[in-house]
Specification:
Elements: H1 4-7, H2 15-36, H3 52-56, H4 63-77, H5 115-130, H6 132-144, H7 159-178, H8 180-190, H9 192-200, H10 204-211, H11 214-231, H12 247-250, H13 255-279, H14 287-295
Protein name: Chorismate mutase
GO molecular function, one term: chorismate mutase activity
EC number: 5.4.99.5
Length: 297
Amino acid sequence: MLSQNFMLEKDPLSLERIRQILVRLEDTIIFDLIERAQFAHNPRIYIRGSFEELRDMGFDGSWLEWFLKEIETFHARARRYTSPDEYPFTSNLPDPVLLPLAFPKILHPNTVNANPSILSFYTRSIVPRISRRATLALAAIKRSNGIIGDEEYEDDGNYGSAATIDVEVLQAISKRVHYGKFVSESKFSANPSAFVPHILNPNPAALEALITKPEVERKLLQRLRKKAATYAQEFSSDGDAIPNPHLNGSAKIDVDGVVELYESYIIPLTKEVEVDYLLHRLDGLSQEEIDALMAHS
């Protein structure tokens, strides 16, 4: 959650300050993925209606969706979602028990929410890949105990542990993706006249070009690979890394999978959020206010 200190900074839209937050989120996401990689795929927890126990309670969603609902209900009461950088995956949450903190209005009012897409690509594409090692190890153990065929793969029964980590990963990815709004607002505020024409005559490609810096993305992926490779290592009791010539094959996390998560999912979806936010940046403004923005550069 954004701290009051961050929001009360002299320049909360400083791109350098935002970059520092995004870099810290890289660490959070990598470590959470390492934790999730300990468990097998467990696809049952992502299938709606697959738990009779939940159906008996009147809940028709998946095990993970139930986890999200229960956890986010508590977080909503603790006013987590009054912070402008927090977006729940669950709708119809209760009101906070405490009064909301007095955050300054930094973002333009908007309804952009990428969480449905995040939940979909995470459960369909990311989990199967990062859990592959644990899934194959489980299958080998089951075969040694005479369990073969369909029953030997994917399910280790750790539904609670896997879903708990899934929630943490999803919340971190959601924050990372939706921080694109702050990036867009920062760049728009610095030079609104460059953006306004492409908003008035909607041109998503032109807006994306204004916010995209290929060199920054290249360095991000390079840094991410180095971090993931470092965190994936095993360390001896004295803290030295244990050499492993086949790092990606037997490491704690699929390093290529972490990079792909960013390259194929997080970065493109963040751009979509940034562009969607910009397309609605003038909503509710008068012509006089828009003219004032055009005069500012």
